What we know:
The chain is α+β, with helices and mostly antiparallel strands and 82 residues long.
Amino acid sequence: MGMFGQDVKYGMRMLLKSPGVSIVATIALALGIGANTAIFSVVNAVLLRPLPFPNSDALVVCFRKGPDARCRSRIVFLSELL
């Protein structure tokens, strides 16, 4: 435990000796951790979590143009198309 205390004291001395480098390193770590968290949150929500529908693996989207040339879309189950 004594070695750990010496290491912490040495680390603090080095951080206080060059505050500019310490601030840049802290900001770089914060940005990296924040970006990693944001990207994982998006990937988790979009790719990893299942959709909140029963039989969500059979959902498809059908697009068709009506006579008035507007595109209409409808979400249906694959079983409805077969």
